[in-house]
Design goal:
single chain, mainly alpha, four-stranded mixed beta sheet, two-stranded antiparallel ribbon
């Protein structure tokens, strides 16, 4: 299955889990009903015996109590109403608690967010891996959380890539090598791509309601069995306690079936995530090595914590011992053999005090330059690379800023390789196929892109003030000094001395940064920008708007930056409603899709006739009857119209998004080459549709 089929499958599995949940609710209501009617029956029997004994003493002809009825509609309605109310509010409470997405789940599980600028070598290793995987896949860098637990485990949580979070235990970052940890992170990114995170959170929410039944039964049982009083009151309390005991048992029977639902959905998806991790890294030894260490380590993957069992289906490894029927994860040896068929089944013991040496600070991946052995850094790339822009290959200079005496001037760096494909456009036509499926080539490319960004900018991007300055620096006009001065005046009037000093430090580097590295740098800055307070965010947002509008026009890069940046930040600071699918047929969106394709055609082709041909080729598959419209005039389009059309398409079902992005792919690749602006715009469209698009690979390297 491709990315869109996985997304659709996850949506259907959500429906499937809801159906099973409804059946579990019906079974719970039935069980509680029979418990209560059974207690009433026992009480009725005692009353009947007492009544009959009394009447027997009065002589023949005394009345006898009518037989007890097991069908009591009023009791059933009462039980159903009360049970459904408890389950509904229990599920609603948990769903709202998890409404903050991945970070909310991570904090509930006891995670502490790792600061983007951390210098702890183990944490830095983890963040470097996450950054590389994010840029390789075209997803925003997720929030990363540390669980203070010595076991080896990890999880991914969130409703969509924009609110995703990855949590990793201390045991994992200390006991796994970089390759092994990379395999685990790649596994978790697979859950992000395939829609598993959303499904997992919804399972937590709906199953919590059934668990509340068991908790309330336990509470009632404790009250009943601890009550004191006269014989009649004590007997009533014991009856109350028995009802509580039975409800507690029923509730945990419901929880058992809830675990069956989780295990039935989770196990096959774990196999898929393992296979995807191998595909992303092309290193089966990485994820297999992590699984082997879990098997050979005394603590294994067993995580301790208050809410861990609720989220057991989210973790990389099983958090506790469970029966084969309710286990949320396949057996370790079976998972390993699917990756390494020659695995013998023997696990090498791992000492509890064993810690991987990360004295190199978790250096960048060796994928850019070959295999990286423990304790050795990969050989750096050359200082220059050929960059193809608009079809012309040129040798680029170092991306470091030319400031005298700066480290950038003294240390040449490799620049990111080409964004433009060869004239055949063979690689360009696979952009849609690569969505949600980054390869080891994408990962190596991402490593090289990060290494090509001046270290001064990378360090600034990992700190809130520096991240804001990086964004401002990228938006400063480089061709019109009058506009640039207006922008600087705006910033000087709103920023404090510390922020201005940071801006002054980074501007020489942003001015000389290769255009292909702008969006990767923004990706690196997003985690630090999430640390802003609401007041800081509002000021930052107003300054970005002012910088963009300083020249009274919005170019494609400014639009792309604004669209992606605030889409990823707004949800972390301001509550927003979860968007629901509104379109299941592309026929209801043809006007909006045509607007998107027309805008791409105009922006990507300077020759109007070529733009018309690209438009016609892109929209033809959407109009099988051959009634495709002519491309509207360029004067009818603005970025505002484009944005409105994009918002509408974002509410479509996954199969429709796939067709839209395929049409966009045809449009931008029509002339056989893709410019940086076209690549950035395609990524902005894919990002707005929650479809992670890997970077377009280069055809030439230095």
């Amino acid at each position: 299955m491709n990315f869109f089929q996985h997304q659709d499958s996850a949506r259907k599995k959500t429906t499937y889990s809801v159906i099973l949940f409804v059946l579990a609710c019906v079974a719970t209501i039935a069980a509680i009903y029979f418990v209560i009617v059974g207690v009433l029956y026992i009480g009725a029997q005692e009353s009947t015996n007492t009544y009959n004994n009394y009447n027997a003493a009065q002589g023949p002809g005394s009345s006898i109590v009518p037989p007890f009825s097991w069908w009591q509609l009023d009791v059933l309605m009462g039980v159903a109403g009360l049970t459904l109310t408890i389950i509904f509010f229990g599920s609603l409470y948990k769903t709202r608690q998890l409404g903050g997405g991945g970070p909310a789940v991570a904090r509930m599980l006891g995670g502490v967010e790792i600061q983007p600028g951390t210098r702890d070598p183990h944490q830095r290793k983890l963040l470097n891996i996450v950054e590389e995987m994010s840029i390789a896949s075209g997803t925003p860098v997720p929030s990363v959380f540390l669980l203070e637990d010595d076991s080896i485990n990890a999880f991914a949580a969130g409703f969509k890539p924009t609110d995703a979070a990855i949590g990793v235990t201390r045991g994992a970052i200390e006991k796994l090598t970089r390759d092994e940890l990379q395999g685990v992170v790649a596994h978790e990114f697979s859950h992000i791509f395939h829609g598993d995170m959303r499904l997992n959170i919804r399972l937590m929410g709906i199953l919590h309601g059934i668990m509340v039944i068991g908790l309330l039964g336990y509470f009632v049982m404790r009250i009943g069995f601890s009550a004191r009083g006269n014989d009649r009151a004590a007997a009533a309390a014991i009856g109350f306690g028995i009802v509580g005991l039975c409800v507690w048992i029923v509730g945990y029977i419901g929880l058992f079936f809830g675990n069956l639902i989780k295990s039935g959905i989770s196990r096959q998806r774990e196999f898929l995530a393992d296979a995807s991790a191998v595909q992303y890294t092309r290193n089966p030894d990485g994820i297999a090595g992590a699984l082997m260490k879990i098997g050979g380590y005394k603590r294994g993957s067993k995580v301790e914590g208050k809410h861990i069992q609720e989220a057991s289906h989210m973790f990389f490894g099983s958090v506790s011992r469970m029966s084969a029927l309710t286990a949320t994860h396949p057996p370790l040896d079976e998972r390993i053999r699917r990756i390494l068929p020659t695995f013998s089944g023997d696990f090498t013991p791992i000492r509890e005090d064993f810690v991987v040496d990360d004295s190199d600070g978790g250096a960048v991946s060796g994928l850019a330059g070959g295999s990286r052995r423990a304790g050795k850094k990969s050989k750096p790339q050359g200082a220059h690379a050929h960059v193809v822009i608009g079809g012309a290959a040129t040798a680029s200079a170092s991306t470091g800023a030319p400031a005298a005496g700066s480290s950038a001037a003294s240390a040449p760096r490799a620049v990111a390789p080409a964004l433009t494909e060869s004239s055949s456009g063979e690689g360009a036509r696979t952009m849609t196929e690569n969505i949600g499926k980054p390869t080891s080539q994408h990962l190596a490319y991402a490593v090289q892109m990060i290494a090509s960004i001046p270290k001064e900018l990378v360090e600034s991007a990992r700190e809130p003030y520096g991240a804001m300055s990086v964004v401002f620096g990228l938006l400063l006009d480089k061709g019109n000094q009058s506009v640039r001065q207006t922008q600087l005046t705006q910033l000087q009037s709103t920023m404090d001395a510390r922020a201005l000093a940071e801006l002054q430090r980074v501007v020489p580097f942003t001015d000389s940064l290769h255009p292909a590295l702008r969006l990767p740098l923004i990706d690196l800055a997003i985690p630090a920008l999430r640390q802003l307070s609401l007041d800081q965010y509002n000021l930052f947002s107003s300054n970005v708007q002012a910088l963009i509008q300083a020249d009274q026009q919005v170019d494609l890069f400014e639009f792309t930056l604004h669209k992606m940046l605030f889409r990823h930040l707004r949800g972390h600071l301001l509550p927003s409603a979860k968007l629901q699918i509104q379109y299941y047929s592309i026929n209801n969106l043809l006007n909006e899709v045509s607007d998107l394709i027309a805008a791409l055609s105009h922006w990507g082709h300077t020759d109007p006739s070529e733009a018309q041909k690209a438009f016609a080729a892109a929209v033809a598959p959407l109009y099988p009857s051959g009634t495709a419209p002519a491309m509207p005039d360029a004067s009818q389009f603005s970025l505002m119209h484009f944005d409105r059309a994009l918002t509408a398409v974002s509410l479509a079902a996954p199969p429709i998004k796939e067709r839209v992005l395929a049409a966009c792919n045809v449009c931008v690749a029509f002339d056989g080459q893709i410019t940086i602006n076209e690549a950035e715009m395609f990524r902005a469209i894919a990002d707005a549709l929650d479809c992670p698009s890997p970077p377009l690979l280069a055809t030439t390297f230095g």
